[in-house]
Amino acid sequence: MDQSPHRLPSPPDGAALRQAPAASKSPSLASPTVVVPIRSLGPGQLARITAHLLALEPQDRYLRFGYAANDEQIQRYVDQLNFDRDELFGIFNRKLQLIAMAHLAFAVDPRRVSCAEFGVSVSRRARGRGFGSRLFERAVMHARNEGVDQIYIHALSENTAMLKIARQAGAVIERDGSESEAHLRLPPADFDSRVTELVKEQIALTDYHLKAQVRQFRGVLTLLQDIRRGVRNARQRVFG
Ligand SMILES: CC(C)(COP(=O)(O)OP(=O)(O)OC[C@H]1O[C@@H](n2cnc3c(N)ncnc32)[C@H](O)[C@@H]1OP(=O)(O)O)[C@@H](O)C(=O)NCCC(=O)NCCS
Question: With contact defined as beta carbons under 8 Å apart, do 49 and 78 qualify?
Answer without folding.
Answer: yes
